Known about the structure:
227 residues, Rossmann fold
Amino acid sequence: MKLDDRLLAVASCVPDGAYLADVGTDHAYLPLWLAKKGKLSGAVASDIHKAPLDSADKNIREAGFSALIHTVLTDGLQGLEDYPMTDIAIAGMGGLMIKGILEKAHFVRERHIRLILQPMQHIPDLRRYLYENGFAVTKELQATADGKFYQIICAVYDGISREYTEKDLLLGRYNIEHKTENAENFCRLCERQLDVLREKIKGLEKGSYDTRKEKALYQSIANEMKG
């Protein structure tokens, strides 16, 4: 079994011996790959749709991991409280959907479970939620698969609400503080945000709106690339 670079990046965040909850598991590729590598003590794979979960069940049985990986038909993390999970992966969903799943799962805070999040859209909104609601971002990384650029955010609840800037939301404070660790990906991240801001500024200027705030943010991100 092979994972694309997106899921390989997610898998790289799962520590040895983890009990993983894979939310929106689809075909259970992530927990199966980790199980075959001997990295899991156990796993629960959930999905809100029956058809992909049936496919996951079939893949798990054929791989011989039915005793290690359990499947649950459910919405997000609902009903998974009794599983001894240490890590939760939520990949391939929108940032607002991930936020909604976490808001309903209070046990994530109580047990300080590690989160591995790969949002498809609304990434600044997800970062805002984590910063404001006591989650420490412990790592961020990026991956490219099929020509698309993906971001992965790892976090754990520590109860500390954090202040942030607009630049923190767009780039991620962790990425800014560790930009030399993978300068190429950081530059790609900055370039994507500069493209978005450039178009926003153009639109605002057409409507004769004040763009000083957006231009200052644009320059700040451009300076991060240079520094």
